[in-house]
Design goal:
Helix content: 40-55%
Strand content: under 5%
Distance between the termini: 90 Å
Largest sheet: none
Radius of gyration: 28 Å
Shape: elongated
Structural class: mainly alpha
Number of strands: 0
Number of helices: 2
Amino acid sequence: MPSEKNAKSAAPSPRSQPTKPPPSSASEMLTPSEVQSLRQEAIENSAYYQKAFAHTKPKAQDPFGSS
């Protein structure tokens, strides 16, 4: 005679089986133009922040020690 635990575990749960596997990467979810747009935005943001925070960058030391 099967116990109630075995009877419950034999029935598949509707939440445990997704209808579609999740995408493995962002490129599978975005169109090529969206990917290009995000890349361009990242390049522009990087350039902006490098310029905006250039004053916080440590000064490069002279490798030969001359002043």
